[in-house]
Every structure is written in structure tokens, then in C-alpha cells.
Amino acid sequence: MAIVVNKPLPEFEANATGGIKVSNTSHLGQVVILYFYPKDNTPGCTTEAMQFRDRYKDFVKAGAAVFGVSRDNMKSHDEFKEKLELPFELIADTEEKMCHMFGVVKNKIMYGKKVKGIERSTFLIGPDGILHNEWRGLKVPGHVDEVLKAVKTIKALKKAA
Length: 161
Fold this sequence. Notes:
Keywords: Antioxidant, Disulfide bond, Oxidoreductase, Peroxidase, Redox-active center. The protein has helices spanning about 45-55, 55-60, 75-85, 95-100, 145-160, and strands at about 15, 20-25, 30-35, 65-70, 90, 105-110, 115-120, 120-125, 130-135. The chain is an alpha/beta fold.
């Protein structure tokens, strides 16, 4: 089942570092950021992870949980998380269930060959479990600040309600 902005997320469950299970209902009441990235320890993905790390306290203050998602296994994630001192958990989507559900698996050309890869994308889920924003095929510079701004908008709307 595909995801749609302004609709609840379909059911899913995934394992993350720290022995945590993440599902469509595990963080109700909290804003959730799911950022999908191609691979641990690659330049763009390292930069993106460090930017989320560096703004992590601002996300927590705004009431959001941050999760990175890639097809890497738990061992790779644990090492990546430790190396970069990431304060948030990483989801190991080794079977690509979440990647397909969120529609981030794309055909790419790498070194002249067609390969299946992950399109760098971020999804913002509201405290009600509804998908509020999506950013697809994004560029890393400035992106984390844009996501934080969107989280603060949700928080302001919630206070006004």
C-alpha cells in the first residue's frame, strides 16, 4: 500500500538500532521524521546524518523523533551510529519493505549501469499518525533546517487547536 500526504500511514513494523521497534503506531502523540538515505558511510549520507545529529536537540525540543532508514543491516547501522555519535536510531530495512511502501526505490544509473537505489527522501508524520509532508529526491544542503521548520509549524498548529 502506498503512502499519501494527509492520510494515515499504512501498517508497518521495523527494527531499529538500540533494540527498538518502530511501527505506524509506536510513536503516536509525537511528530516522527523518517529520512531515507542510500547507504551508511557514503559522503552525502554521512553529511545528512551529521546535520540531523547537529540539530537533534532542536527536533526533540519541537516534540519530534528522528529515524534514519536505509537497506543496510543492523551491524552497519550500529557502526555508523557509533562513528558519527548519532543520538537517534537507524532502521535496518534490509528487505526493502519500508522503502517500497514509501516509494523510495528508484532505478539509477551508476558508473554506466542500471541499479536499484534509494532516492534520498524525508517524511514528516504528525502526532496523529498522518503523513504531513514529504520531500523526495532532495539535496542535503539546507534540507534539515527545512524539515525542522515544518515540525515547528505542526507544533504551532497543535497549540492553536
